[in-house]
Amino acid sequence: MARLVANTLAARWSHSVVVNNPGGNAIIGTELVVKDAPDGHTILLALSAFVTGPSLFAQQPEQAVCGFAPVATIATAGLVLVVGPSLQPNNLQKFIPLAKSKPGKLTCASLGAAAKTHLSAALFCGMTGVKMQHIPYKGFSVLVTDL
Fold this sequence. Notes:
This protein is mostly helical. The chain has two domains: 2-56, no CATH class; 92-146, 3-Layer(aba) Sandwich (D-Maltodextrin-Binding Protein, domain 2). 40% of the residues lie in helices and 5% in strands. It has six helices and two strands. The chain has helices at residues 2-13, 27-35, 48-56, 92-100, 116-128, 140-146; strands spanning 107-110, 133-136. The chain is elongated and about 55 Å long. The mean pLDDT is 84.
């Protein structure tokens, strides 16, 4: 998403726009932006971890959320629960009883601890009484390949 925005801005501004993809649940990227010179040339494309991070992690960048001014909503994204082809249920009504019958034996992949995918899975488990083992991944492509 950041690269799409960068390409559009570069065309409008007639100069290149560099995209950095630091991870760490938005902590690393936020620290870079906070420490950068306030020259109007640095933009933070914040994901959900930017908002959830301060309530989940003790070590947060100075001015974590308060020091920023929102400019625009670029996109919104929903989440979808999917299962691999080896698991038979093809709807939620069949999946929940199956998962409850195998407490801790099914795994739930996410894009990292405290990522939106992890928090949503934890909420799902809490609401349904399902117990699954959390498997954090460093990237979406590896997660999908394993699924």
